[in-house]
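re the bet — no i am not wrong, look at it urself. input seq straight from the record:
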Amino acid sequence: MKRFHCFVLTIVLGLVFSLSTFVYALGEANVKGGPLKENELFTTFPGQVIENHSGYTTWIRKWYGPDGNYTNNGNEANHSNELIELGTNGKLTEVELSTIDGLLKTKDEVTEIQWDDAHGGTRAWTVFELDPTNGNNMNRGGPADSIDTYGLIVIDAPKAMTSVMSPAHDNYGQIWINGEKWYNHPTWTGAVQQVHYNVEVSLQKGANVLLYRVTEGGGSAYMNLHFDDATHEAVKIYPDQATNKESFFSEIAGVLPVEPRDKLTTTWADIKRK
C-alpha cells in the first residue's frame, strides 16, 4: 500500500509540474529569427501550438485604417493581391503603409482608397474599434464573408526592444512592422482569442508602425492581436482616445519623427530597388 501511495503521489506531482510548466510557457515565443525573407512571404511557420489567450486583457481594440472592408475577395483566393496598391492606383503599397512615410501619406497624399463598387467602393481613412471577444468583429456592418480587413497601430517604444506578438485571425493573417513582414499564417487560429504563433519581433525606439491584414472566406471573421505583458507595460499604443483620422494624427503628433528614421528609409528604399 505504501508503494501504491508513493506511486500516486509521483503521478500527482508530475501532473502539477507539467501544468505549471504549461502555464509558464503560455505566450512564450515559438517563432524567432524574423523578419521573413522575401521567399517566405507566403509560407507557413513550423512549430504551431494551440493556446487559449482569453485570459489576456491586453487585446488591442482600436485600429486606424480604411472605414470599410474590401469585399467579394473570391473566397480567399486573393489573399496575395496587393489591395492597398490597387485601391490607391499605385501611390501606396502594403509594405510602405507599414512605415512612417506610408502612414503619413494617408493624411497628406492618399485621402481615400478607391476600390470598385463590386469590392467595397470608396473607403476613407479613420479609427475603428474591434471587440476582441466577438468572433465576427471584422464584419463592421458589411458582408460577413469573402472580405479583407486592414488595421494599423503605432507603437511608441521607450527604447529598442524585443517583443512577442500573439495574433488571432480567421482566416489568413499577415503582419508587417516598419516595412518588414513578420507574420504570415494562411489558416484560421481556431477561436477568437486562440493563437497558433507567438512571434518574437524587434521594435525600435520611438514610433513603430504595424499593419495587420486578415483575409476571410466564410464563417467566422475576426482579427485580434496582443503583445506580451512586458511590452504592454512599457509602450504606448495608438489609436488610444482618437475616434477619427484627425484626432488620430493629433494623438501621434509628438510620437512621429519630423523626418523618417534612417532604418525605415533604408528599408523602404531597399524594397523599391528590388
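see?? The first helix runs from residue 2 to 25. told u. also The CA atoms of residues 4 and 10 lie 10 Å apart. so pay up
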